[in-house]
Amino acid sequence: MCLGVPARILAVADAAQMTVIAEMLGEQREVNLSCLAGPDDPLSAWVGNWVLVHLGFALSRIGEADALAFIDMLRQLDEAEDGRGHMKAALIG
């Protein structure tokens, strides 16, 4: 099963490589925006937006309410697994 993880874009990492720094499940990761942003789009315009990330690539933009609901669902799943943290490790590994 493939699953996108909600992430909030915090800053531009490397505009030439189309990468940003995003926070997902409490971790900061470098994420590639080339699937969403055009080559001439300023990446700074994406800061503060929420995206779904899969394998380091942002695949779609999502609203904050949907992102927070998804994160809450992931936390509930982790708690159902006795809070072992397996969910987080599997998603952002």
From TrEMBL:
GO function terms (MF aspect): carbon dioxide binding; iron ion binding
Entry-linked InterPro entries: Hydgase_assmbl_chp_CS, Hydrogenase_HupF/HypC
Keywords: Plasmid
Domain of life where this protein originates: Bacteria
GO biological process: protein maturation
Keyword Glycoprotein belongs to the record: no
PROSITE patterns: HUPF_HYPC
Family statement: Belongs to the HupF/HypC family.
UniProt name for this protein: Hydrogenase assembly chaperone hypC/hupF
The organism of origin for this protein: Azospirillum lipoferum (strain 4B)
Taxon lineage: Bacteria, Pseudomonadati, Pseudomonadota, Alphaproteobacteria, Rhodospirillales
